[in-house]
Amino acid sequence: MKNRVISLVAVTCMALGTAACSSSSGTSAAGSSAGAPGGATTTAKGTIGDISKGVKPDPAAVKLLPAAVKSKGSISVAMDLQYPPTSFLSTDNQPEGYNVDIARLIAAKLGLKLKIKNISFDTIIPGLTGGRFDFTTTNMSASADRVKVLDMINYWKDGSSLATKAGNPLHLSINNRSICGKSIAVMKGTTQEQTYLPALSKKCTAAGKTAVTSVVLPNVNAALTQLASGRIDGIFYDTPSLAYAVQQHGTTFDVAPQQYDKPASLGTDLVAIGLAKHSPLTKAMQKAMQSVMDSPSYKEALNNWGLGAGAIKTASIAKSPAS
Predict the structure, then answer these.
(1) One domain, residues 154 and 275
(2) pTM of the shown model
């Protein structure tokens, strides 16, 4: 992969807390800084090459692998490679990003080769339940519907935000009724589309306001095109990917400094690995992910992409928000 510097100011400062916005003496900071809310700055260099090179298998995780998987010697991960900084294709058409790093580390801990399958986000769950892929690391949260059909293992913490035209001329906030009657883009198959925006729209109608118009689009770049042309009023999406995409357009767009204040009934901001329900790989995958978390590679992967404040300590099995 080519060496390049990636600025992730909006990601760390808005998605993952102010602690990530202070300067660090660690190796993950590189290149020039850009402005962030409150004047804080940060940068991230991304991961150069395969982060799992030299990582040894964890015997305890390997022991839990089904015999058929050990015999095959490989494992497949499904991800949508158009969402930097977590999963995307580099300029030389190679998979990279935080979720790519994590998938590679998991495979290394299991002593297996990794096969990366680039597919549309909304087809990942059918692919998992249909047995076409073994697992996914793709910014998927444990919604009630997903937990019904998937085993899910928490591996980091994310959030959701609203993007608008620069200066937020309509004074929109995802946390109040200013979005009532507005056209808000969400990405197909995401929790924002399926759960969060419908809940917000219901609050609008319950208060006698006009419902939010949900505009479902395939990816964040398509949404930014429509926002620029005035066909939509805002974009509601995962903060890291949204902030990264907005940052690439200079001063054209803004991401609100406050993330979506999600009610407890809709779960947490934890992001989870997904496998088919009752997958024979689940126990081995959980053990491997915990082994990654307990190693320096976990923080290295997060910090490389400016996401260090999203680290968690336990690869717990994700539960339904209703639990």
Answers:
(1) yes
(2) 0.72
pLDDT in tens, 254-298: 999 888 998 988 878 899 999 999 999 999 999 999 999 999 999
Q: Which of 139, 138, 158 is nearest to 16 (CA)?
A: 158
Judgement on whether residues 164 and 262 belong to the same structural domain of the protein? yes
The SS3 assignment for 215 reads strand
Contact partners, residue 300, CB within 8 Å, separation at least 6? 28, 51
Range of the domain at 168: 160-266
Cβ proximity of 97 and 86 under 8 Å: yes
228 in the same domain as 167 = yes
Q: Do 299 and 229 belong to one domain? A: no
Q: What is the 3-state secondary structure (H, E, C) of 85-117?
A: CCEEECCCCCEECHHHHHHHHHHHHCCCEEEEE
Task: Please indicate, yes or no, if residue 20 is contained in any of the structural domains.
Answer: no
Strand locations in the chain, DSSP E?
74-79, 82-83, 87-89, 95-96, 113-118, 135-140, 150-157, 160-165, 183-187, 213-217, 234-238, 253-255, 270-276
